[in-house]
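thought: fold this chain, then report.
action: predict
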Amino acid sequence: MDNLLRFRDDEPHEEPAVTLDAFLEQGDATAVRLEAGEDARLLIPHFARLALVEVSFPRFRDGRGYSSARILREAGYTGELRAEGDVLVDQLLFMRRCGFDSFAPAQPLDPEVVQASLERYRNVYQTAADRSVPVWNLRHG
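observation:
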């Protein structure tokens, strides 16, 4: 995958992701692909065998993948969480906040622009899966 961006220290998962239905039927798959609108909560009992959850973004304006990421991270999923599809550079910071740690955009992204977009805002205003401390908490401890 030429366009893969990863923010993890481990090796990329090489096994192809299977559909949610196939994953639930198989006992040995370790990578699953969630399509927009599929229920991420169905994966919670299977975290022990999951190494990769790939979440589809069919269009940049379809935000259901953000909810899937947040559900998985808040339920305790620690494996690789990849956003795939129509992923734009201005979405990366918000996707990272929701718990995505790798990205497979349909179109290549300029690495310098990616870095600048991830460093643009120093403070956040609410808690999220990335565990950044909100600015109000920094002020009022």
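thought: worth noting. The chain has one domain: 5-140.
final: tokens above.
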